[in-house]
């Protein structure tokens, strides 16, 4: 009975409780509706949440809460509540249109379309509303047919309804019919001014048609109506940016990034605004953040590349700009940036493609191309510089400054047609003194004094009050060696323009040319007081004094500006001249990481290593020089020469080929390559290269010499001889004498070979290579001459192993044992592991009567030669016989396979002795 009683109490308690909760849910709903009428959204949300807490299955509370979230633009929260309301059987007529829009806000297009079956039962107005969202979902999911069906159905249900017009507007936008879309939006907003979907569409269309202020206004209204739709703030920020409201756009971007610090679109806005403000650090930072999130907009890459360019981050600039260059207009500023970036990175071959379509007649482009040509010329990329110069001057210009730039650059490239450009510049603008000055100094350089004088006289008439005409006159007088006349002109120049630099430095130059030391010092002292940090003055000052006091001046100037590469080089040069090699090396090494170091830097560093005999540092330095400045021909030639001197011809050829990649058709490099191919006996590629070189404008004797060497390698001595003869007669060097003598020897004409070598010794009596070769020929039929020459060689070259060895044999043949022994011992001391040297020593010992020692060294020679040298083996047998080791001699002799008649004769004699 107690159990039953307890159950009864419990049932009553539950009933009372349920009744209380029901009252509470209804109360919350009423309160929520009341708050909504008063536009108290937050209070309404609280009441509805309380209602749901009291009754989780209350469909109306779920619907109302979802409706509020949707009105705020909170798509995710709206979807959650409206889906729950739908599952709790809340009327589809109310839920479905709102749920479809919630799906639109969350980009759930497939979910919108999935509602289509259920939507068929909706009333006309609600179905029309759903169909508008189905149209948009179909278009976004690339289902145009479904979108058209939706629009047609919406219009058939209610043609002039707000949502049928919205559906039609979406479809018209997909077909780029902007005017029709604008008309429909206008009609919708006339019906309902705050229709949020129409406002969003209006903003998007305005962005496409570049009506940015309208887009700003539309997105602002939308944001006020749906403040929780975060995407609209990004759209607004972008519209503000496009409309030129950078500060306001940045405020919205900052607000977004405060919530989501890696939001790519907000980072894009920040990057664009910061770039406009020239805050390139921040622009680069935000651009990189957006790009790292795969926000690969063209404008963003442009800003990232340009920001990196201004920050001199060349690798980053190249990475971004090279990716978009093909989309840039021909004369876009970013193309210039990329070209400079490629220059900085040493990607010279890419520059032409980057600016290949520049209009050289445009003044801005012309100046840029000239500047770039000059930079390429500085690097040594002459071929590329000439390409740009040609592009810059495709048509005759009517711009004097353009012609002047062209002319000066051409003269720098040793192109005499530059004079014509300068003359055109002067015709176009007679006041363009720089052009006429260049003409005058070019004439001076060519020795055309009359031309330079004519310009100077013209200037004196036209510009009697300008120092420049007298400076030119002084330069002409110095060229002619008329120093008094030059002094007078410079005094006049200084009276017109006090302390003008050109006149003062020219005065010092005159004093130095005349070796007037007191006057040179006086003028140098004055110059250093008025320009103590000028590099030209410092160089002249040190040139006059060349002592520690002058070095101190250079050091002081360098300490004031250690970033000045020229000062560092100048100070290092001075230190080297005073023998302070370690100090010079230290300064040069301290700037080793500076980009684009000039040739003089590398030449000076190599000089310090050579003078200190730090030969192990030379190859790495040459390699680094070539890597950092691949267009410096000097680096190519020096590194090639280094490997060639080590007889590493393959490596040398690799270096020269790399040089030719950067300097196509460079004659100097082609000639070096030819020498390497010939030295390495690569006949076929040498013949191919000769076909190119023979068409070049070079000395005919040189061409004949190259072809003669090819014939020499091919052992075609008949054709080689006349060409090598001309080569030697024109260029009588020791090497050319050896080539010609070699051809005579190959042609079995030893007498003529001797004649060539003897002739060269009249030019250079101390050339050991020639003497050694000559003695080698004498060996065959004139022992006395051979001995005389070899004796002379060993006096000059005490460590010449070949000469000592051959003298030992020659003296042994003359039975001069003491002399033979002297030279054999010296040869053995110098090369104890060379089989032939040891064999000679053994032979001389045998001749001296020291049979046991002879056998010892004959055995050693055989061991070194591994028993493969027939002559050494026969000498070994001879030593064995002399020591009565007959059986060993017989066994060894039986194994010897002779080849020459001389070897066969000797073997027969040894057999006879046995």
TrEMBL record:
SUPFAM superfamilies recorded: TPR-like (SSF48452)
Gene3D superfamilies on file: Tetratricopeptide repeat domain
Residues annotated as signal peptide: none
Keywords: Repeat, TPR repeat
TPR repeats (start-end): 196-229, 467-500, 801-834
Name by which UniProt lists this protein: TPR domain protein
Species of the source: Colwellia psychrerythraea (strain 34H / ATCC BAA-681)
């Amino acid at each position: 009975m107690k159990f039953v009683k307890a159950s009864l109490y419990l049932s009553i308690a539950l009933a009372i409780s349920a009744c209380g909760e029901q009252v509470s849910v209804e109360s919350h709903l009423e309160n929520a509706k009341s708050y909504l009428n008063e536009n108290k959204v937050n209070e309404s949300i609280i009441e509805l949440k309380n209602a749901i807490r009291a009754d989780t299955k209350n469909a109306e509370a779920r619907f109302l809460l979802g409706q509020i979230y949707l009105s705020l633009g909170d798509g995710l929260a709206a979807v959650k509540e409206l889906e729950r309301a739908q599952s709790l059987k809340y009327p589809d007529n109310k839920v479905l249109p709102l749920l479809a829009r919630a799906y639109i806000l969350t980009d759930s297009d497939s979910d919108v379309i999935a509602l289509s079956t259920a939507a068929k039962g909706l009333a006309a107005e609600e179905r029309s509303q759903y169909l508008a969202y189905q149209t948009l979902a179909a278009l976004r999911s690339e289902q145009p047919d479904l979108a058209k069906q939706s629009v047609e159905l919406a219009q058939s249900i209610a043609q002039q309804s707000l949502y049928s017009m919205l559906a039609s507007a979406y479809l018209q936008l997909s077909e780029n019919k902007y005017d029709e879309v604008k008309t429909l939006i206008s009609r919708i907003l006339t019906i309902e001014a705050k229709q949020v979907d129409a406002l969003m569409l209006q903003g998007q269309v305005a962005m496409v048609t570049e009506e940015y202020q309208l887009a700003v206004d539309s997105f602002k209204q939308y944001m006020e109506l749906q403040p929780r739709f975060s995407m609209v703030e990004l759209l607004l920020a972008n519209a503000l940016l496009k409309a030129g409201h950078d500060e306001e756009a940045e405020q919205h971007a900052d607000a977004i990034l405060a919530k989501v610090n890696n939001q790519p679109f907000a980072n894009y806005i920040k990057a664009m605004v910061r770039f406009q403000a020239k805050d390139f650090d921040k622009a680069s930072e935000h651009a990189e953040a957006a790009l790292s999130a795969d926000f690969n907009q063209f404008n963003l890459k442009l800003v990232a590349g340009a920001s990196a360019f201004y920050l001199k981050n060349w690798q980053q600039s190249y990475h971004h700009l090279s990716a978009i260059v093909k989309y840039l207009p021909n004369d876009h500023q970013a193309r210039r940036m990329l070209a400079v970036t490629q220059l900085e990175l040493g990607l010279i071959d890419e520059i032409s493609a980057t600016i290949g379509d520049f209009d050289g007649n445009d003044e801005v482009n012309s100046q840029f191309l000239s500047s770039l040509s000059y930079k390429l010329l500085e690097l040594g990329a002459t071929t590329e510089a000439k390409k740009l110069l040609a592009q810059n001057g495709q048509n005759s210009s009517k711009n004097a400054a353009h012609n002047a730039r062209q002319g000066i650059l051409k003269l720098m490239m040793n192109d005499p047609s530059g004079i014509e450009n300068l003359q055109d510049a002067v015709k176009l603008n007679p006041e363009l003194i720089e052009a006429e000055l260049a003409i005058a100094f070019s004439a001076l350089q060519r020795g055309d004094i009359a031309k330079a004088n004519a310009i100077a006289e013209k200037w004196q008439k036209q510009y009697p009050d300008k120092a420049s005409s007298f400076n030119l006159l002084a330069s002409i007088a110095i060229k002619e060696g008329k120093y008094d006349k030059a002094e007078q002109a410079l005094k006049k120049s200084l009276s017109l323009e006090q302390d003008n630099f050109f006149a003062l430095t020219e005065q010092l130059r005159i004093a130095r040319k005349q070796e007037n030391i007191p006057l040179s010092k006086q003028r140098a002292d004055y110059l250093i007081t008025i320009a103590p940090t000028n590099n030209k003055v410092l160089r002249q000052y040190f040139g006059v004094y060349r002592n520690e006091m002058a070095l101190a001046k250079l050091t002081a100037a360098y300490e004031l500006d250690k970033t000045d590469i020229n000062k560092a080089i100048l100070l290092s040069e001075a230190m080297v001249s005073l023998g302070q090699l370690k100090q010079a090396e230290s300064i040069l090494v301290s700037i080793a990481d500076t980009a684009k170091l000039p040739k003089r830097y590398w030449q000076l560093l190599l000089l310090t290593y050579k003078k200190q005999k730090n030969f192990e540092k030379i190859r790495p330095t040459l390699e680094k020089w070539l890597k950092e400045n691949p267009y410096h021909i000097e680096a190519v030639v020096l590194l090639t020469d280094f490997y060639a001197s080590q007889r590493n011809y393959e490596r040398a050829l690799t270096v020269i080929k790399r040089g030719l990649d950067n300097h196509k058709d460079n004659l100097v490099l082609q000639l070096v390559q030819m020498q390497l191919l010939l030295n390495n006996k690569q006949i076929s590629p040498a013949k191919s290269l000769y076909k190119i070189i023979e068409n070049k404008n070079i000395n005919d004797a040189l061409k004949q010499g190259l072809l003669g060497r090819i014939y020499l390698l091919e052992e075609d001595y008949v054709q080689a001889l006349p060409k090598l003869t001309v080569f030697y007669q024109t260029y009588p060097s020791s090497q050319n004498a050896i080539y010609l003598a070699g051809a005579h020897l190959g042609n079995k004409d030893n007498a003529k070979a001797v004649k060539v070598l003897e002739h060269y010794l009249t030019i250079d009596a101390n050339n050991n290579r020639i003497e050694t070769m000559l003695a080698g020929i004498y060996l065959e039929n004139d022992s006395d001459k051979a001995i005389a020459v070899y004796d002379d060689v060993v006096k000059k070259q005490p460590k010449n192993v070949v000469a000592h060895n051959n003298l030992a044999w020659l003296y042994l043949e003359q039975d001069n044992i003491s002399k033979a022994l002297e030279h054999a011992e010296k040869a053995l001391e110098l090369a104890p592991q060379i089989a032939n040297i040891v064999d000679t020593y053994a032979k001389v010992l045998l001749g001296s009567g020291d049979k046991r020692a002879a056998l010892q060294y004959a055995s050693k020679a055989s061991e070194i030669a591994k028993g493969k040298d027939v002559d050494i083996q026969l000498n070994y047998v001879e030593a064995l016989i002399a020591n009565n080791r007959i059986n060993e001699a017989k066994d060894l002799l039986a194994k010897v396979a002779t080849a020459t008649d001389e070897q066969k004769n000797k073997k027969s004699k040894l057999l006879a002795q046995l």
